[in-house]
Every structure is written in structure tokens, then in C-alpha cells.
Amino acid sequence: MAACIHCGADVTVGSRFCASCGQPATPSGATGLRRPSEASLASGEQRLLETLRAATLGEYEVLGEIGRGGMAIVFLAYDIALERKVAIKLMSPALLLMDPAIQARFKREARTAAALSHPHIIPVYAVKESDDLVYFVMKYIEGRSLEAVIEETGPLPTAAAVTILQQAGGALAYAHRKGVVHRDVKPGNIMLDEAGWVVVSDFGIAKVAQREALTVTGGVVGTPAYMSPEQCQGLDIGGATDQYALGILAYEMLTGRPPFQGETMVNLIYDHCHTPPISITDLRPDCPPDLAAVIMRMLAKQPEDRFPSIEEAVAAAGTVGDSADETRTQLLTFVQQTPSTSEQLIDKFRTPAQPMTPAPPSAAPLTTPAGAPPTAQPTPATAAPIATPPAAPAKRWAFIGVPAAAILAVFGWFMLNGPAEETAPPTRPAEQATMAPAGPTASEVEISPTSVQVPVGGQTALVAVARDSTGQPVVGPLTWESRDPDVASVTDGAVTGLASGSARVVARSGLSSAAVTVEVVAPPPASSAAAGPRPTRVTIDPGTVTIGVGDRAALTGRVLDQRGQSMAGARIAWRSTAPEVASVGSDGQVTGVRAGMATVVGSAAGLSATAQIMVTTAPVAGVDVAPGSVTLRPGESSQLRASVRDDRGGAVTDRAVTWSTSNPAVAQVSPSGLVRGVAAGSARVTAGTDGVTATVAVTVEAAPAAAPAPQPVADPRPLILAEVERYRQAISSADIDRLRDVDPSMSADRQRAWEQFFENVSDLTARFDNVDLDVGGDRATARVSATYEFRAGQSQTQQTTLTIQLRRASGQWRIQSVE
Prior knowledge:
By secondary structure, the chain is of the alpha+beta class. The protein starts with a strand and ends with a strand.
């Protein structure tokens, strides 16, 4: 063994990293070396912030840290050009020291997230790197994590939980259609923004389909409390893994705790693979049974036993009684319970002038494992009895392939290798000193293209889209302004070059705005005019198109010269600002994808023009329901599925289907199409939308004749009490093997505690008084008042209360756990 040169902990010879502090270890056997002081760590953290500010100088004003994890640190920043708040996710430089290949994983996170465009997935704006840093810029979500909400409020109202489940499930379903599996769905990666909408973040360990996944040697990818059985076992995973994690998240929202709370990662993995979760209705009696059944199916151990897709799982969860407005009010209440993080930082870091050393973290209190023996130590005769400390709360682990403590290495790295000269943080211009709050309709504005060149006398078109806090386009007027009107003018997005130079063009919606730089270039000299016509403008005909979903329309683009004549052979490049609404081919053919608005841009020779595309919903021609008939018995259920089609047989996916039954006394149906038999008879279940319906015949058969009454079952209490007595005798024997035989659930920590106790005491006697039994089927709970009498230097007596969980298997009662 040798000593870590950073923290002094024992390190096995040949180890590359210290298991205690996570830093690169040099097993030299040296002693007396200490880990960096708190002041040194704070200095390293400040150096990291200054390095980031230097790397982003002129683009972003970095205000301060707002969060960190195993791979990255997140900072709040201000985008100077676009005048908006953003989040900068910075890869921890310590990870590069441990494994340079981790940089590829971090970049892949950015590329993966940037390729996903969905209202409930956080958008990525840019991916950047410098000599010392790798980071990407993403939208800043003003709000709270679901983890913070649950920790503060406990179980959520059912309607709020279902709404969060639907929105998060919709985002994951979209990602799955794009071939991306999140693999780390948990409350900490679910955000509630200031408008009460759900946003899924951190696709950092997502595995893109048909691409070799990067790995970290010896690492476990995911968060054990939310990992699926197949993920725990290192098997191939797919969308069913995210469905399982989403089911755990829903379970926690309804009950206030995840289904499994093992003391160690090994315990958690075992529970995920083998232990059935406690029924939700046992922990939350007011939970609708249909909803509880859906979540329990999402938690099936085998992927094939879960729903075929997250879409079907979310559809089966349906909706509950509260109105949408009431639910939004609840979610907004959760978000508004704490002050704005960004506003606090803006005030704190308005003009950062000197390093700010954070207070050193307080040490976590030491706790004794649940079910540990009393602590034996000599005490004066007048000392109070030794109290057994309470069980430690369940912990959450997050593993990304490196020890969490390795983040400390970033500070030492920057102290040794950071830039020698300090760069003063950028000072915000006076006109940017006050950031206006987001307007009532638009929270951001985007302009495309982001850089433009137009000749003097020429014209080009800019496209601006205002979006609300969910990323959805906002319908409303946009105002345009040229801050250099002598160089370029702008009207409704059409920019005209007036004189050579640069002009700043701004688009505003409410209190939000965005800006681009337009370069106006001089026309060619008069002597070159004979060389031929030059392009000055692009036109698109028609400028406005209305088509249905699945329909097509042709756009005609022309490039005009200075005389207004079409230039033969000029090629136009086409693109759609919302391809999920309307796509466009290289020939200008537009196809309606789903209902909504999109802008098609045609560009050539640095010039562009736009056409507005409105896609209308296809009319519903029919509804198909499967299966076509159902036979049940009272109490049995069957899931019906409805598909909506248009007059050409295409699927219509934006219609809500309503379900009803002709005879609820015989058969009932839930909003998700789950039909349940009530009493013998016949009924018809109807599915409909937009006045089009389809029906299913439901037959409920009479229940079979009751089986003969079972013989009275012997009272199990004597057998349970006998097992509890075996546990008492095992303690009194001071024999750890005997005690472990009675309590097979004993953890390693508890075993060591008992062994130490047995070694330090003599004349041990355990007495159990007031045994209170609660028996239900094959499970029982015994609450025991226990008294321990022993000698440890002198005679001592201690009292405690034990809760013993027992279970019957093969006719025998055995202890499952002791707390």
C-alpha cells in the first residue's frame, strides 16, 4: 500500500486514481502530504470561472455557477449579441486528466441534444472549445427541478403528476423516434419552467441508435435508483429502459419516494432485477386504480412485459379529474416557491471585480446503519442510557463512469496548469445593465440567417420567429429596426443595402429581441458591368400557401438581376424553419407534415426570400378500434386501442379520442380505453372524435361458481412469534453466524457493528417485551420493545424499539428485515 499525494488515503500500488478523492494518484509511499486547503480549492474554482470568462469574452457575460454534476459545471451567462440569458455547460477539466476520451462523450451530448427539436426538450444553441475548455451553450430554463419540488412538497397531486408524466413522456417518445434513448431519466433531469411546463434535460449519456456507444472503463452509466433491470445487467437497452425510469419517476411523484431504497448500489440493483415494488395504492390510497396499474406495468422486470412504447404508456395513463387550468396553477405554484436563481446571480455578479471565495462546505453528519446494535462503551454510573441513533435516510447515487469526488481535481489542475495571467471579466455596457423580464407572450426571438451579405441596391429577406417559454412559436406582430439606417433599411424583414458597411438589424416581440449583422458590399466597378448581370434579389411565388397534412405544393423561386430580369441557371437552396410542420425538397416542393405554421426560405448568391406555409388538419374519415370484440368476467380488464385515419387511409395523430359505454352497469371504460367487466351482460363501447365513431361489442360472462369454502387456516401468530424468539436468542448468544442465519438481510455494515458489539461486551441478555403483530396474508410486521443487559466495564442496560418484517414462504415464516 502507498499514500495518495493529495489526500493521504491508502492507495493500492499500481492504481491510477485515489478511491477516496478521485485525483490522479502517485503511490510513492510518501507520508505527511495533505489535500489542498479550502482556500486553495476556492482559488481553483475562481480560476476556472475566470478562464471561462476569458474564453467567452465579447460573446457572453458569465454571471456565476448554477449547478454541477459528475461531468460538467453549469454557469448562467448573458448572450451579449442576442440579449438573452443562456446556460453554459462546461466539461470538467479534471475528466480530461483521467480519460481524454471522455471529451468525445461530452461533445456527443451536445450534438445529440442539438439534433432534438421538441417543446419539452431543452434546446442547444452552440458547441465550442478552446485550448483549455470544452463547453456548449443552451437555453436557460428559469424554474426548478422536479427533484427539488418532490423534496420540498412530498407526493404531488394526481393531476399534476399525470401532466408531468405526459409532457416528459412526449419528449422521450419524440427522442425515441429520432433513435435516441435518454438512459438517465430522473427527477433531477426534469425541469419545470416559469410557465409551468416540463422540460427534459441532460441527454449526456444518451445512446444514439446504430452508433457505437462511448464507455468509461469500469464505470456504471446511469443513476441506480432509476436504472432498469436490463441496464443494471449491462444488456442491450432501448426505449423500454426510459419507460421503466419514467415509471419510477411517476411512482415517486405519487408516493413521495422511489419504489426501491437500498442502502447500497448492490441492494438497489438486486431490487430492480428481483424485488416487486410495493403497490402504489398501498402508499397512496387515493390514486386511481387504472393509473396505478399503468405505472406498475411500466415497472415490469422484463422489457417485453411493459408497454410497446412510451406513447402507449402515456396514453394509457390518460387524464384525471382536475381541469388543465387548475393543474397549470399547481405547477406554477411549485415553480414559484423559491426566488429566481438568475435574478439573484444578476444582482450578485453585475460587475464582478474581484475573486469571490465561497464558504467551505459543512461536513455531513455521521450516521449509524439502520438496525445497528447499541454502542457499548464504559460510562459513569450517572450517565444517561445510550440512545440508538435513527436510521440514515435513503441516498441517491449518480454514476457516470468516474468517482464523483474527482471533480475536486479541477481545482488542483487549474492551480497548476491554469493561465498565468488573470483576465479581467468583461464589464457589461450601460445599455445592457438592466435585463428586461420576459414579456407576456414571447420569451425569445430567433432570426435566420444569422449573418447576411447584400450588395448596395440589393435586397434580402430575414426570417424572425418569436417563441414562448416552451419553445412554441408565438403568433403576433414583430417590429424591425435598423440601427444603421444609412447603411441598410429594413421593412417586415426585407433588408435593402444602401451603402457599404455593416448594419445591425433588430427584431422585437414584446420585451424580447434578437439581432443580426448585415454586411453591405459595394457593387462591382463600372468597368466590370459589361461582364454581365449580377443578382440583386430573390422572389418566391406564391408567397403564402395553405395545404393539408400529406398534401404538396410547388414553390417557384427566381433570382433577379439589377434590371429585374430572371437569371437563367441560377440555383436556389430551399429550407424550412419548421420541418416538423412543413418540409421542402431541393426542387421547392413543400409537403405538409402536421398542422401549424412554417416559413420556407429560398436562398441564392447571399440573397433570400420567404414564403409562409400554413398546414391544416386533415379531416377525419374513420376510427378503427382493436380488438373488435371483447369477452370478460367481472373484475377483468382489457385494453382497447383506437386509430384515427383520413379519407386517404393515412393516420391522423393530432386527434383526441373519447370513450363511452352503453351500459356502465355491465362494462366500464376509462379515458385511455381500458374496459373493465362489472357484471354479467352485454354492452357496447364507443370510441369517437370529430363526430366519427366506432364501437366494440363487450360481453361479460357470469363469474364461475364459487369454490368450496377453504378450511380454516391455522393462526400464524405462534409461528411468527417463534421466529422473533429465534432472533432474540441469537442476540443473547453473541454468535454472529447464528444471528446472520436468522436475519439473512443483514448488511455488511450492520454485521460489522454487531461483531464489534459482541467483542466489547459480556454477560449479554436480550429481552423482548410488548411484541405487537400486524399480519396480512404472507407478510407480517412485528414491533418489539427490546431491552439489552450487558457488561462493558460495568453493568449497563439499554432499551430500543425494533420493527421486524417477516414473510411466509413454503409454509415457513422468515425475517426479511430489521430496523
